[in-house]
Amino acid sequence: MTVPFATPHAAAPIVFDRTEMNAIFRLYAQMVSAGVWRDYALDFLKDAAIFSVYRKHTEYPLYRIEKRPSLRKRQGAYAVIAPGGLVMRRGHELTQVLRVLEKKRLRPIGG
């Protein structure tokens, strides 16, 4: 018996592993307790895993934390991206990349 929608060569989506999620949620908890962030979304695509943070759930994301393994050998797999698409920091280690958000205690745009 075969599964009708399964394809043997379908690429699995990119995901964050447990240690990456722990680092992201540690930062998220700090920002929520500071009143800066209020909501988040996770997207797992075929070429990237994206953690988006929001001030309110109906707005555009304040920041996106991305994992793109295809960039691992060049600029690094991890990036923090601002609303206009500006790459705030890119690197090979997630904890180092997240420091751009920790150090500045970034306030939301317009807030």
- The average pLDDT value, as a whole number, equals 85
Protein structure class: alpha+beta
The proportion of strand residues reads 15-25%
Side-by-side strand order of the widest sheet: 1-2-3-4-5
What is the strand tally? Answer: 5
What profile does the largest beta sheet have? 5 strands, antiparallel
N→C terminal distance: 57 Å
- Unreliable segments (pLDDT under 50, ≥5 consecutive)? none
Which bin fits the share of residues in helices?
10-25%
The value of Rg in angstroms is 16 Å
List the secondary-structure elements in sequence, H or E.
Answer: HEEEEEH
The number of helices is 2
**How many discrete domains?**
1
Q: Tell me, briefly, the overall form.
A: globular
Oligomer: single chain
Describe the model.
The protein is of the alpha+beta class. The chain has helices at residues 18-33, 94-104, and strands at residues 39-44, 49-54, 63-67, 78-81, 87-91. It has one domain. The protein has two helices and five strands. A five-stranded antiparallel sheet has the order 1-2-3-4-5. Helix 1 packs parallel to helix 2 (94-104). The model has no long low-confidence stretch (mean pLDDT 85).
Fold blueprint:
Layout: H1 18-33, E1 39-44, E2 49-54, E3 63-67, E4 78-81, E5 87-91, H2 94-104
Antiparallel strand pairs: 1-2, 2-3, 3-4, 4-5
Helix pairs in contact: 1-2
Question: What is the gist of this entry?
Answer:
This protein has one domain (18-104). The chain contains 2 helices and 5 strands.
Supply database-style keywords:
111 residues, alpha+beta, globular, 24% helix, 5-stranded antiparallel sheet, 23% strand, 2 helices
